[in-house]
Design goal:
Radius of gyration: 37 Å
Number of helices: 15
CATH topology of one domain: Rossmann fold
Oligomer: single chain
Largest sheet: 12 strands, antiparallel
Distance between the termini: 102 Å
C-alpha cells in the first residue's frame, strides 16, 4: 500500500488501483519495433551450414543408408543459394544414446563454439541424439551462443531457434530415448531366450573356423599357435615372453596381425572355449544409455555348456592355467599349489597358509585338514555334565569374563582386514627373537595359530621390523590368502576384525592361538553410523571417549552375559591343549595337493613345445 492510500477503506483503495491501471493513450507513446524474427524457410541471410549424419551399425548393408544421407543433404544445401556447406559430420556404426565414440559429433559442436557454423541440418531427432539430456542440452548450448546456432530436424520439421520448438523437441526426444530403451529390452530378452536353449554366439576365434551351420570347428594351423601359448604358460613362460616369441615366429592373430602383446596372449589363455566349453554372459550392459559393459558377478543369469565343441586344450590344463594367472600378480612361480598339513602333535590338523597363493578354496582347507585327522574334533554345543572332585569349588552358573570387555593392555591381538593383518607388540614379545612367522589355520575348530618360521620356509611372513623404539609390529600384506579366510570364517568382507589370543609355551618354543569365534569388529569412527547396526550379527559399544579412533562391535550373543560358562570355557581349553607335551609342538608335515586330473607337467609341456616348433620349422 502506498503512503497516499493510508487511511482509506478497502473499496477506496481498489478504486485507486483501477484508475492507475487504466494507463495512458497509445497516442502519447512511441513504440520502437523489435527486429523481426528470422523466418527459417524464407530467410535470404547467408548461412554456414553443417550436416550431421549417423548410422547405428557398421554393417556393410548400412553403407547405402549412410551414403544416401550424405548425398541428400549435399543436394539440399546446394539448392539454397544462401547456404554454404561447411562440412558433413558423419558417425558410422555408433549408437545415438551416448556421446561415447561420436567423434564427428563432438568435432561439429567444437566448430560451432569456434564460430565456424551458423546452422546444423540433420535428418531427425533420433539421428542427432537418442538421449534426451544430450539432445536438449546441446540444443540449449548452441542457442546460447552469440550469435545463436540453430538445429533443423528435417523429418519432424523442427527449427530450434523457433521460440515454440522446445516442447515439441522434448516430447520427440523422449520418444526417441524410450524407443532405444524398448529395443534394448527386446534384444536382452532375445539373448536370454537364445542362451536358455543353448544357442550361443560364436564370434571369430583363433584356432577355430565356422562350418556351414555356424558351429566351431578346429583350424589345425591356427590351433598350433593356441597350443604353443598354453604349453608355454604351463612350462613357466610369462605372457610377455610368449608374446615376444610369437612375434618372432611371425604367427598371426585371428585378425591377421603379426605383432603380439601380453594382453592378447592373456585373452587366449582366459578363454574357456579352448577347452570345449562355453560360458555365456561374462559381461553385461546395465545402462542402455552409456553402453558401458560390466563384469557379471552374478548380476545376470549365466549359462555354461561343457563340451559344446571340440577342444584344443584339455579342461585340466585350462583350469591349471587359470590358477597360474590368478597368482601371477603375487609373483608366485610354483607350478602345483601345495598345502602343508601338520600330521601330529599339538598342531595336528592345522594347515600352513601359503602367503602368495590365491588359488586355494574353502574346501581345500577343510579337505587338507581332515586328511590327517581320524575324526573331526568339535567343541560341545550343549551343557556339559560336570563331576566335581572332593574339595573342588562348584563353579556352575559362574562365567569367565571375556577379556574383550576389560582392558586389553598386555593381551596379544591380531587385527585382520580383507587385504592385510597386523599383530600387536605383546604378540611379538611372546615370540622373542622372531622376525618371520608362519600362520596356520584349523578350519574345523575355527582356530588360527602363529609360530616361528623354520629356516628358509617358503611360507614365512615378516611380522616386525627394527626401529629406534625396538622391534615393532609390521603390517603383513595378505591380499592373496585373506579373502579365502574371510569365506572360511563366514566374515563380512567389508569389515575389519580383531581377535584376542593365547600363548602356549613348549620349553623354548611358543605358539599363539586365536579363536575366530571370539572375534570382534573394529570400525573406524568416521565410518560408523550410530543409527545403524554395524553388522547383522554384531552390536556396537557406546562411545564415551572422543579420543578413540576406532569403535568395537561385539557378537550379539554376548549382549546378555559377561562371559561364557566356566566349564564350557575349560572344555575349549582342554580341547586345544589335549595331551600337550614339549616334543609335540614341532612335528612333520604331510602335503595335500590341490592338483586335479591330468594336468600337463612342465616336462611334458616342454616336449609339446618342442614338437610344435619343429612342426612350424622353427628353432627352439
Amino acid at each position: 500500500m502506498q503512503d497516499n492510500e493510508k487511511g482509506l477503506n478497502n473499496d477506496q483503495v481498489k478504486k485507486k488501483i483501477r484508475e492507475r491501471y487504466k494507463g495512458v493513450s497509445e497516442d502519447v507513446l512511441d513504440v520502437i519495433p523489435a527486429v523481426p524474427q528470422e523466418d527459417f524457410y524464407r530467410s535470404e541471410n547467408h548461412k554456414r551450414v553443417a550436416v550431421y549424419a549417423r548410422v547405428s551399425t557398421d554393417d556393410p548393408n548400412q553403407t547405402s543408408s549412410y551414403e544416401l544421407q550424405k548425398n541428400h543433404y549435399e543436394d539440399l544445401v546446394n539448392r539454397r543459394t544462401n547456404w554454404e556447406l561447411v562440412d558433413i559430420y558423419a558417425d558410422e556404426g555408433i549408437s545415438g544414446t551416448s556421446l561415447q565414440h561420436r567423434d564427428n559429433f563432438l568435432r561439429m559442436i567444437e566448430d560451432c563454439r569456434l564460430g565456424k557454423i551458423d546452422l546444423i541440418v540433420t535428418k531427425s531427432v533420433s539421428r542427432f541424439a537418442r538421449n534426451i539430456i544430450d539432445c536438449i542440452g546441446y540444443v540449449r548450448q548452441l542457442k546460447a551462443e552469440n550469435p545463436p546456432i540453430g538445429v533443423f530436424f528435417e523429418t519432424e520439421n523442427i527449427y530450434t531457434l523457433d521460440e515454440n520448438s522446445e516442447m515439441s523437441l522434448s516430447f520427440i526426444a523422449t520418444l526417441a530415448q524410450e524407443e532405444s530403451h524398448t529395443k534394448s529390452e527386446i534384444m536382452n530378452a532375445s539373448v536370454e531366450m537364445r542362451f536358455k536353449r543353448g544357442i550361443f554366439l560364436t564370434p571369430k576365434l583363433l584356432g577355430y573356423d565356422h562350418d556351414e551351420n555356424g558351429n566351431l570347428v578346429i583350424n589345425e594351423e591356427e590351433a598350433k599357435t593356441v597350443r604353443l601359448i598354453f604349453f608355454s604358460y604351463l612350462f613357466g613362460y610369462t605372457s610377455q615372453q610368449i608374446a615376444d616369441a610369437l612375434t618372432d615366429l611371425d604367427r598371426l592373430t585371428k585378425r591377421g596381425n603379426d605383432v603380439w602383446s601380453a594382453g592378447s596372449v592373456l585373452q587366449i589363455l582366459s578363454n574357456e572355449r579352448y577347452c570345449g566349453d562355453v560360458l555365456a554372459r561374462k559381461t553385461f550392459t546395465p545402462n542402455y544409455l552409456n553402453h558401458k559393459s560390466k563384469r557379471n558377478n552374478h548380476d545376470r543369469n549365466q549359462y555354461r555348456q561343457k563340451d559344446h565343441h571340440e577342444a584344443i586344450i584339455s579342461r585340466d590344463d585350462f583350469f591349471a592355467v587359470q590358477k597360474l594367472i590368478r597368482n601371477a600378480k603375487y609373483r608366485n612361480k610354483g607350478y602345483f599349489p601345495e598345502m602343508p598339513v601338520v600330521k601330529s602333535g599339538f598342531l595336528k590338523g592345522y594347515v600352513v597358509v601359503h602367503p602368495k597363493w590365491a588359488g586355494f578354496t574353502v574346501d581345500d582347507y577343510y579337505i587338507a585338514s581332515t586328511s590327517v585327522l581320524e575324526g573331526v574334533n568339535k567343541i560341545p554345543s550343549k551343557p556339559l555334565e560336570v563331576k566335581l572332585e572332593k574339595g573342588n569349588i562348584d563353579l556352575r552358573g559362574y562365567e569367565l569374563v571375556r577379556t574383550q570387555f576389560i582392558s586389553t593392555i598386555g593381551h596379544i591381538t591380531v587385527s585382520i582386514s580383507p587385504s592385510k593383518l597386523l599383530f600387536n607388540k605383546p604378540s611379538l614379545i611372546k615370540l622373542p627373537d622372531t622376525k618371520k612367522i608362519e600362520i596356520l589355520v584349523n578350519p574345523g575348530q575355527r582356530l588360527i595359530a602363529v609360530r616361528k618360521a623354520v629356516s628358509n620356509s617358503r611360507y614365512a611372513l615378516e611380522w616386525g621390523r627394527y626401529t629406534e623404539k625396538g622391534f615393532m609390529p609390521k603390517i603383513i600384506s595378505g591380499a592373496a590368502f585373506i579373502p579365502t579366510l574371510y569365506k572360511l570364517f563366514t566374515w563380512n568382507i567389508d569389515v575389519q576384525y580383531k581377535i584376542n589370543g593365547t600363548a602356549y609355551k613348549f620349553g623354548e618354543d611358543t605358539v599363539l592361538i586365536f579363536s575366530v569365534d571370539d572375534a570382534t569388529l573394529s570400525i573406524d569412527k568416521n565410518d560408523f553410523d550410530p543409527d545403524m547396526e554395524s553388522d547383522g550379527a554384531y552390536i556396537a559399544e557406546k562411545v564415551t571417549s572422543s579420543r578413540r579412533r576406532r569403535i568395537t562391535a561385539y557378537p550379539k550373543e554376548w549382549a546378555d552375559s559377561f562371559g561364557e560358562d566356566y566349564y564350557r570355557t575349560k572344555a575349549k581349553e582342554d580341547l586345544i591343549t589335549k595331551d600337550r607335551q614339549e616334543k609335540e609342538l614341532v612335528s612333520g608335515h604331510v602335503t595335500y595337493s590341490t592338483e586335479e586330473g591330468n594336468v600337463t607337467t612342465p616336462e611334458k609341456a616342454a616336449s609339446e613345445i618342442k614338437g610344435i616348433l619343429e612342426d612350424l620349422g622353427a628353432d627352439e
